[in-house]
Amino acid sequence: MKHCINCCIHLLPNDLHRQCFRCRGPSHNNQKCPVCKGENKNHLYTDSKQMKLLAVLEVRTDHSESWNGFFCLKKGKLCSLIFGLIIMTLVMASYVLTGAKHGLLLIPSPFHYGAFTSNPSLMDNESLSDMKDHYQSSKINISYVKDYPSIKLIIDTITSKIEFITRQRPDLEELRKQEPHMFSVIPNKFLPNSKNPCWYEEYRGNTTTDPYTTNSYALYSKRFRTIFDYLRKVFWNHLYHYKDKHYRLRCLPHFYIIGQPKCGTTDLYDRLRLHPDVRFSAIKEPHWWTRKRFGIIRLRDGFHDRYPVEDYLDLFDLAAHQIQGVLQSEAAKEHSKTNNIIIGEASASTMWDNNAWIFFYDNSTEGEPPFLIQDFIHAFQPNAKLIIMLRDPVERLYSDYLYFASANKSAEDFHEKVAESLQLFENCMLDYSLRACVYNNTLNNAMPVRLQVGLYVVYLLDWLTVFDKDQILVLRLEDHASNVKYTMHMVFQFLDLGPLSEKQEALITKSPASNTRRPEDRSLGPMLPTTKAILRDFYRPFNTKLAQVLFDDAFLWKRT
User: Fold this and answer.
1) How far is CA 207 from CA 203, 233, 378, in A?
2) What is the pTM of this model?
3) In 10 A of CB 497, how many CB atoms?
């Protein structure tokens, strides 16, 4: 094996390494070479042989780790190495891109997050200060901040299209044509000696007849079968016998907690049912007026058989039995005692959910429903009392998202869903009225988050077209959370309930809050400041109108 000590490269047996002028093959003579002549040489003697020190240091052994071996790798191995590097590069690029988008990077990019900065002219000082107070130490994705100007244009378009137009009430005869069976079951007048609306209905079955055999609530939900099993056992004992006929006491609710979802209605329900004069339906939220009477269990699952009004009335049989006990007591008969027990119903969809109208009613009103839930409730119960619990619509929407979203929940995902929902709402507002968009079934199902539920004033104004203002009590969750005793006293007074003992009042007001946010949802933290600013802008004109209607600036939610 020959070596070029000047170039440190192995020479193959037949290679003269002619590119180096210092090497001329086996005949090369340093003494005769004009380049090599005269160079100082250091020699090393090994095994009695003289060797150049430089040669000893520079000569490489002939094995696979030599430079020549590196350049002579087989082409297959070299291709495999290059292919592997390409695959690794693509995987890393995919990780960086997707991780950056969804916030999954283990080490965040210094360009991906930063303190919230935005053009102050694009939002009012109040929104900005609110965000600084609430998110002093938080950081947000800059890309979401950049969304603000474009989404602000969408909100401005929506705001420019807002018109609060009073709807026309339908005639009673028109309502009868739509629901003839309901009007045949519920009478025009109720028992005069009962504070709660009740009446006697003839029962034509016998002792072996099961009155709840066809009840849809019992058929479709296992949770309620235990209740109906009990009702079957005591049913015959609570019939009123008169002239060889049997009568059962039927009742409707005296008051309704009609909304809104994620606004504290469950907590209000749990406290109110502790009052000795208050009873509720067998289940908290029957959703009969809004969904079940149309055959809707879950709208995404399509339609089932419609729940008749009798199935709804069955839910109040437990309370009706107690009211009947009061009415038939000896003291009541002798002194004409009036029953003071009242029944409540707490479906939080009653105020806003009219999604089914498009499938059952005439669609010739430019997208607006010709009949609403309140039209029918008022037709049967013109003296009904309504309780509404509201909260800051911005916070309500985030709570709603955390509660109903099934997977991949995050502040970033919420922001994207809000942006998409606003775009869909804007598209509707360009072609239809505000009321048509709010009650638009297709739009409401398409929006990833339920923006429309927070448009409180739109629904309230429609309820005020059929009910008097003194029949509706509107509360704020923020007030209820800070002073439960005060809000419960307001409710007691509104429902004209009797006084409570100190022990009873303490039981009602000092009970722990119900239906609070789940621990796993709390761990996700608050929404992004930009999302909050966007939603504040969207809901602002609606909150302003609501405060005007209720003569209360607290419903502006400026400090939340």
Assistant:
1) 11, 11, 36
2) 0.74
3) 18
pLDDT, tens digit, 9 for 90 and up, residues 232-252: 999 999 998 888 899 999 999
Provide the angle, in degrees to the nearest 10, between the axes of the packed helices 529-550 and 411-429: 50
Percent of the chain with pLDDT over 90: 57
Task: List the domains of the chain with CATH numbers.
Answer: 172-555 (3.40.50.300)
Q: How far from chain centre, in Å, is Cα 270?
A: 23
Residue with tokens 């009478």: 187
Report residue 225 CA to chain centroid gap. Answer: 30
Residue 543 is encoded by which pair of tokens?
């909150």
Q: Please give the DSSP secondary-structure letter assigned to residue 278.
A: E
Strand segments (E) across 252-384: 255-259, 278-280, 342-345
Phi-psi region of 17 (alpha: psi -120 to 50; beta: other; left: phi over 0): left
pLDDT digit string, tens, across residues 167-183: 999 999 999 999 999 99
Tokens of 479: 């007030």
| Rounded Cα–Cα distance for residues 411 and 336 (Å) | 60
The C-alpha atoms of residue 410 and residue 526 are separated, in whole angstroms, by 9
Per-residue model confidence as pLDDT tens digits over 488-520? 999 999 999 988 999 999 999 988 887 676 666
